[in-house]
Amino acid sequence: MSKRILHVATNVAHYDDPAEPTGLWLSELTHAWDHFEAKGYEQVIVSPKGGFSPLEPRALKWPLLDASARAWLDNPRRMALLAETRRPDEIDPVEFDAVYFTGGHAVMWDFPNDAGLQSLTRAIWEKGGIVASVCHGYCGLLNVTLSDGRKLVAGKDVTGFAWMEEVVAGVAKKVPYNAEAEMKQRGAHYMKALLPFLPYARVDGRLITGQNPFSAKLTARKIIAALEARSPAR
Questions:
Q1: Which pLDDT score, from 0 to 100, does residue 231 have?
Q2: Active site residue 31
Q3: Of the residues 165, 166, 180, 182, which is catalytic?
Q4: Could you tell me the residue ranges of all domains in the chain?
Q5: 139 is a catalytic site residue
Q6: Which H or E run includes 208?
């Protein structure tokens, strides 16, 4: 039976200032999608509100716009997937083996407190599935509480976009909070690469996280390894 992956994307199109656009960092989706597609996995995209997921403009410029992301932009069928994402209430978590939170600064606004995403994530985790994120996608894990009242990330090794990377990227004053610090406050063991923007990922059981946009391929490979090493979660 084919594995099924649930990708999570944002609906937010700008920072607090509407003149500052942001959105999904496209390659964080496409790099993982390509790896999963090569394995024959079924894939679905969900967002907090469903419908359109805007793209981060900075991710669409050379050299960040690589062959994988460019292929999506040039493929109307693929782009339609980002125009017609599903809502959380349209998803049955029993049908999925893993949930993968994509990033882009936009997710800092709509991922952390979305009840629908939290419910899906908790259900997939508690049925034995894999929960994963890359870059700012880990903001979607900040407030996921399990049925026993514990935070999903408490006591777990976790990585995601580092505060130093926010500073280097020149957006530290534009983001609504320090995600690295927030993750630590929830009892997670936050870890990162020695230098900013190096590929880096952590695996703590069924929790798999990648640090930055350049970690999407590595994170996807670790998700695949975890899925192939175990029987289907459903």
A1: 57
A2: no
A3: 166
A4: 4-228
A5: no
A6: strand 207-210
Nearest by Cα to 183 from 204, 214, 213, 169: 204
Statement: 4-228 belongs to CATH 3.40.630.40: no
pLDDT digits (tens, 9 = 90+) for 9-40: 999 999 999 999 999 999 999 999 999 999 99
Whether 166 is a known active-site residue: answer yes
- 100-113: pLDDT as tens digits: 999 999 999 999 99
Q: How far is CA 177 from CA 139, 143, 192, 224, in A?
A: 10, 14, 18, 31
Per DSSP, which regions of 71-158 are E strands?
98-101, 130-134, 157-158
pLDDT at 170 over 80: yes
- The set of long-range contacts for 35-39, using a CB threshold of 8 Å and a minimum separation of 24, is 35/217, 35/220, 35/221, 35/224, 36/3, 36/5, 36/220, 36/223, 36/224, 39/3, 39/224, 39/228
Catalytic residue among 56, 135, 139, 182: 135
The two structure tokens encoding residue 149:
């009242």
- Averaged pLDDT for residues 209-230: 97
Which tokens go with 3? 């594995």
| 77 pLDDT higher than 50 | yes
Q: What is the pLDDT of residue 233?
A: 43
User: Are 111 and 117 in contact, with CB atoms under 8 Å apart?
Assistant: yes
Q: What percent of the chain has pLDDT over 90?
A: 95
Looking at 7, 35, 105, 136, which residue is catalytic? Answer: 136
